[in-house]
């Protein structure tokens, strides 16, 4: 600070203090975590509350990808790949392609439905609950799809085309066909394409037997009915009128066992030769599970979807125990 001086009037004048020099400033500064320098004098400080945001985003993305169907479809496809005789490296590629494809489908579904879910006050979805932004879910969906394409074609051009057909059908369901009477078609196409994706990745690129493709399509229709059944009333309130919504919950519960048991019958009776005891027992078990899901679904509609998943798992076990995917059969 400069020294005071005496002016002509005799009064002592105190000028404003000069700003401290760089060496006079205190070296003690508050603790801060610098993540980005926006300018020469601007730094973004991350508070303890903000440091947990990435973890919350990851958790919200995990909840938006429909983890239940993702795990079931990916695990069943991996089991098909192993028992079909794919090499370990090819099995990993097959599983990775299905995993990324399912991620893209689930995120696309939640991102596209976000506006309707928010408008109707629907809870239970991370986007509708405000845990994550729609833009971020769309980004994740497109990123997963971008990974799915090369992973699919890594199994061969024919196999890649089959799997991407399944993924494209699922995206068409999310973006358009969900609210039409053709809502069952993407499920049928996608489930039928999965065994084709596995077999076309084998040497010689064989197609699965016709009864395998038909059983996959029927399982897809059953999965669609069981998946939509718990949400029919809410979908009708938001203007979604797909095939199950047009039928109504009571008719869907009665119809649900038909495609599931028919698929089981094809898998048990389709292979050449007489069906064995295991095949007949699995067919009877699938029928009992499907009927039980229909009965229990009157009180707890989620039971119908659980029954559909159980029958799908049983059908895959039936398919594998019956000699694989029937490649080369007709």
Strand line-up in the sheet with most strands: 1-2
Order of helices and strands: EEEEHHHHHHHHHHHHH
* Shape call: globular
* N-to-C span: 99 Å
Region (Disordered): 1-25
Subcellular location: Membrane
Protein name: UbiA family prenyltransferase
Transmembrane segments: 184-203, 209-229, 254-273, 279-296, 303-325
Structure description:
- The longest helix has 33 residues.
- This protein has two domains: 148 residues, Tetracycline Repressor, domain 2 (Orthogonal Bundle), CATH 1.10.357.140; 92 residues.
- The protein is mostly helical.
- The protein is 63% helix and 4% strand.
- It is a multi-pass membrane protein.
- InterPro entries: UbiA_prenyltransferase, UbiA_sf.
- This is UbiA family prenyltransferase.
- Its main location: membrane.
Which descriptors apply to this entry?
2 domains; transferase activity, transferring alkyl or aryl (other than methyl) groups; transmembrane helix; two-stranded antiparallel ribbon; mainly alpha; Tetracycline Repressor, domain 2; 330 residues; globular
Give a quick summary of the entry.
This protein is mostly helical.
């Amino acid at each position: 600070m400069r020294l005071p001086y005496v002016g002509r009037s005799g009064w002592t004048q105190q000028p404003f203090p000069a700003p401290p020099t760089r060496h006079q400033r205190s070296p003690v500064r508050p603790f801060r975590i610098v993540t980005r320098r926006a300018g020469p004098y601007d730094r973004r400080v991350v508070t303890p509350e903000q440091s947990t945001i990435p973890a919350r985003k990851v958790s919200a993305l995990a909840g938006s990808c429909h983890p239940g169907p993702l795990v079931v479809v990916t695990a069943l496809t991996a089991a098909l790949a192993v028992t079909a005789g794919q090499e370990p490296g090819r099995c990993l590629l097959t599983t990775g392609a299905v995993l990324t494809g399912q991620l893209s489908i689930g995120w696309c579904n939640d991102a596209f439905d976000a506006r309707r879910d928010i408008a109707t006050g629907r809870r239970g979805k991370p986007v509708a609950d405000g845990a994550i932004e729609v833009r971020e879910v769309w980004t994740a969906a497109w990123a997963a799809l971008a990974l799915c394409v090369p992973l699919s074609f890594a199994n061969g051009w024919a196999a890649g085309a089959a799997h991407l057909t399944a993924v494209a059908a699922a995206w068409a369901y999310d973006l358009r066909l969900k609210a039409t009477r053709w809502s069952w078609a993407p499920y049928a196409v996608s489930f039928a394409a999965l065994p084709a994706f596995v077999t076309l990745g084998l040497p010689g690129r064989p197609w699965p037997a016709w009864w395998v493709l038909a059983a996959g399509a029927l399982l897809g229709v059953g999965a669609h009915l069981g998946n939509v059944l718990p949400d029919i009333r809410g979908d009708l309130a938001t203007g979604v009128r797909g095939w199950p919504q047009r039928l109504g919950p009571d008719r869907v519960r009665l119809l649900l066992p038909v495609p599931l048991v028919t698929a089981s019958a094809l898998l048990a009776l389709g292979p050449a030769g007489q069906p064995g005891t295991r095949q007949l027992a699995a067919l009877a078990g699938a029928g009992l599970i499907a009927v039980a899901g229909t009965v229990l679904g009157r009180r707890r509609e989620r039971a119908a979807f659980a029954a559909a998943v159980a029958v799908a798992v049983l059908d895959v076990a039936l398919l594998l125990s019956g000699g694989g995917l029937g490649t080369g059969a007709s």
